[in-house]
Amino acid sequence: MASYRGRPLPRPDEDILHQGLAFDLATMRRRQALRVLGLGAVALGLGGCGDDEETPSTETDTVIGEIPDETAGPYPGDGSNGPDVLTRSGVVRSDIRSSFGSSTTRAEGIPMTLTLAVQDLADGGAPFAGVAVYVWHCDRSGRYSLYSEGITGENYLRGVQIADDGGEVTFTSIFPACYTGRWPHIHFEVYPDQASISDASNAIATSQVALPENICEEAYTQTGYEASVTNLAQVSLDTDNVFGDDSGALQLATVTGDAMSGYTVTLEVGVDTTTTPTGGQLTGDGVPSGAPPSGGPGGPPPSR
User: Where is the composition biased (Low complexity) (predicted)?
Assistant: First the structure.
């Protein structure tokens, strides 16, 4: 796979100067982080006089900026807004396509493998081994298990994985829909360890993964995703109420594969435990801007 300093290129057939705004902003933020860590002179090749894009680096350029704190939305299932799947036996699993417990209903859709590589920015960007990562997202109809009409008894497309020595967690799932008022996305929370997931206030990071437009356009040509075609045409990364401040610069995933065989989605996640988390339900109930107040895709927020 074509890459730049260890980072997969979103447009592998084009040169480094034409990778898009999100890639450029992420690169700028990486360099800022390196300067803060005192590594900027090495990573930017300031010892030479040539262009920094062509200057060999003796320091691997893998330190990223802190993942932006985001709302957990109205359907977290972490106990902060109604149901709590994190206290149920079986939630720690890699394949989240089926419900667990009293139901085994399986969510249908394009196969998707999601890998999040978590970095400990308080430790110079080292792999954050041992953290627990809770992932959840809507199904191909735009509904959330535990909350949406007809699937309140399901808990599919939700699960927890413990980061390995490389700081990575991997989930087997399906490609999510685009529902009214939001760009296609995947939610996640990071906890210090597995024992901490029983209380949502223990989360050290709450954020969302943005999915690339060209991938979404391709995916939504498949059966079951018909409503997503219209919804995607009405929103953009720039206008989305979560990703719009910087077009998801640090949240836009790298995706490979195709709609027939499935997609592999990857994102590097920088977590800084020296800063105070501001995501989750701390920012309000998290109802997406423009989302239907009730009865629409994603379902109504639960009564409290």
Answer: 272-289
Question: Which of 276, 208, 203 has its CA nearest to residue 242?
Answer: 208
- 176 exposure class (CB count in 10 Å sphere: 0-12, 13-18, 19+): buried
The pTM (predicted TM-score) of the whole model is 0.77
Task: Give residue-wise pLDDT tens across range 246-262.
Answer: 999 999 999 999 999 99
| Nearest CA-CA partner of 185 in 121, 241, 111 | 241
Name which of 169, 189, 154 is nearest 277 in CA terms: 189
Q: In whole numbers, what is the pLDDT of the chain averaged over residues? A: 82
Beta bridge partners of 190: 133, 205
Question: Six-digit token pair at 28?
Answer: 């700028």
Q: Supply the pLDDT for residue 63.
A: 73
Count other Cβ atoms within 10 Å, centred on residue 274: 7
Q: Could you read off the pLDDT of 27-48 as tens digits, one per residue? A: 544 434 433 333 333 333 434 4
